[in-house]
Amino acid sequence: MNYLVTGGSGFIGSHLVEQLLKKGHSVINIDNFDSFYDYTVKIKNTLESIDKNFVFEFTDKESDIQKLISLSESQNYTLYYQDIRDKKGLEKIFKNHKIDLIIHLAALAGVRPSIERPLEYEEVNIRGTMNLWELCKDFNINKFVCASSSSVYGNNEKIPFSEADNVDNPISPYAATKKCGEILGHVYHDLYKIDMIQLRFFTVYGPRQRPDLAIHKFTRLISDHQEIPFYGDGTTARDYTFIDDIIDGIEKSIHYLESNSNVYEIINLGESEVINLNEMLFTIEKTLGKSAIRKNLPMQPGDVLKTNADITKARTLIGYKPDTNFQNGIKKFVEWFLRK
């Protein structure tokens, strides 16, 4: 099969690309190597995902990405340095390839930055996604997996969070763009018969996790004997989901779409195991064998108090079965962190 993956050099995307290639599929990776964080992280992700193990000499962003594109050329993998806001650029890619199914992971991520840059989040997460659906319509591509987010639930009072819950009260621009993506996705499904699964990811962690996210940031700062920013009293809690389980859920969603027609589904992908901030920090400290130096700070605007996924639908519909508990997941992450 020929799969197009947007954001295929990011955390989740690079793991998905790696898994699809191992199973003999062809992959087209579209990524804009956004400056949200150091572009070199995405280059390293890409090299790992295509099993290129050698020292990469970094110089400057543009030349480094062109070098990466040359290094990654193969019959079953193509990398494009492309922004999804540029519809004409995307159109050239669609003309060059036969695409069976799209897995759309590219987005501007992060709750707190979205409060500072809401218009940019709208451009990427809404307009960029609509560009892809417009091209699906034009090129008759009717299978689409889309990354949504648990952030759409806001401070949902009902626990655990179910896909049937009302999600009309997001508390950040990022969450609002993801909710818009779900609504507009249904429009394109209804009008143009694009079979679609929207996956609400719950706090994904593991090897290659973005360096700005809490588990990676805490691990780095504790290792370097630096203060960690500790927001709130430690009782905020997340349904942390290990990367391997998320990739399994994406693959099972792909298989479901390929086997069924007239599909529009929203599915939670979580672990259904809730860990609070105090527990998370303690687990990292225990695994590293080092103590954290806390800098206590107030809760941040846009942060939700708790997430907890009801994964009944995912189990029933696609056979999703997460099997990595938090302690083992942190152990695997720390092992990766220490050898990278």
Automatic annotation (TrEMBL):
<comment type="similarity">
    <text>Belongs to the NAD(P)-dependent epimerase/dehydratase family.</text>
</comment>
<dbReference type="InterPro" id="IPR036291">
    <property type="entry name" value="NAD(P)-bd_dom_sf"/>
</dbReference>
<feature type="domain" description="NAD-dependent epimerase/dehydratase">
    <location>
        <begin position="4"/>
        <end position="270"/>
    </location>
</feature>
<dbReference type="InterPro" id="IPR001509">
    <property type="entry name" value="Epimerase_deHydtase"/>
</dbReference>
<protein>
    <submittedName>
        <fullName>UDP-glucuronate 4-epimerase</fullName>
    </submittedName>
</protein>
<dbReference type="Pfam" id="PF01370">
    <property type="entry name" value="Epimerase"/>
</dbReference>
